[in-house]
Design brief:
This protein is α+β, with helices and mostly antiparallel strands and about 280 residues long. The chain contains 7 helices and 11 strands. A hairpin with a 4-residue loop joins strand 5 and strand 6.
Length: about 280
């Protein structure tokens, strides 16, 4: 049992793009007692939901894996295309597909959801690398609706020993009669750099904004504008904080002077090398 808990923690902490390697290493370290197939499937489900993993299929088939889009065991709905996909959670591949039945679609919700999905999809094309999104809507009361926006993007560069992901979850609560609402979200980023080392950075922030609109088109634009502004502000904050860290914390970790307390004369390095060669002879 203890081995399974260790294996679970290791797998759940896997950086994006490195899940299969971590699983292989866990199996090699812990052996057959580390985790059985049923337990592994459960951990994979939790990992994908936490990281908003995206499974791909033939052509432009994609589906974002989350608790909100899960329909059954390894079955997920892609609200961007109203398609249902069966997914291989280890390979992150779509193995079969189907459509959402007409009875499952609420026309009243779709009237606002579809323009919002289109607007968010356009935003991702210019802002989030390899991004995918889904917008789920529901009626929560008289003239009250709620929309859930999930965004996930990743950039993998194993050749240069780094990978990263960007995810965000947004809840949009609206009063249809008053044509106003509130947007609340959480944006999270993670970067892993592992050339001759192992450095990970994880950061997240909470966001909120108010919106008003006149029609379904302006509703979609107002929500997307709020999402875009909050994510861009968070991105600027990350860049500024990293610049400060590089100039302060990281610089203070470096030794200002060698142990001899004498500055090395780099312009005389050739002379030093020649002197060593002559001395050795």
């Amino acid at each position: 049992m203890e081995k399974q808990q260790i294996a679970r923690r290791l797998i759940l902490s896997s950086p994006v793009g490195e899940l299969s390697q971590v699983i292989a290493d866990v199996k090699a370290l812990l052996g057959d007692d580390g985790m059985d197939e049923e337990a592994l499937q459960g951990v994979l489900r939790d990992y994908h939901h936490k990281n908003l993993s995206v499974a791909t299929g033939s052509g432009d088939q994609r589906v974002l894996l989350s608790e909100e889009s899960e329909r059954g065991n390894t079955v997920y709905i892609d609200y961007a295309t109203n398609s249902v996909y069966v997914v291989d959670p280890l390979q992150l591949k779509i193995v079969s597909s189907d459509g959402v039945s007409e009875s499952e679609i609420d026309g009243k919700v779709e009237d606002l959801r579809l323009p919002l999905q289109k607007e968010i999809s356009e935003y991702l094309k210019s802002s989030v690398s390899s991004g995918w999104s889904c917008v789920k809507g529901s009626v929560v009361g008289d003239e009250q609706m709620m929309f859930l926006i999930l965004i996930s993007g990743s950039k993998l560069n194993a050749k240069n020993f780094w990978n990263g992901r960007w995810t965000s979850r947004w809840t949009v609560k609206v009063d249809v009669s008053a044509r106003s609402g509130a947007v609340e979200g959480e944006v999270e980023s993670m970067v892993h750099y592992y050339e001759d080392g192992n450095v990970q950075m994880e950061a997240k922030t909470l966001c909120s904004a108010k919106i008003v609109w006149d029609d379904k088109t302006s509703f979609a634009r107002a929500v997307c504008k709020a999402v875009r502004e909050q994510e861009e502000q968070y991105h600027r904050h990350l860049e500024e904080s990293q610049a400060i860290t590089a100039e302060s914390a990281f610089k203070s970790l470096r030794r200002k002077m060698p142990i001899t307390q004498t500055k090395f004369q780099w312009d005389k390095v050739a002379a030093y090398s020649l002197a060593r060669e002559l001395t050795s002879k």
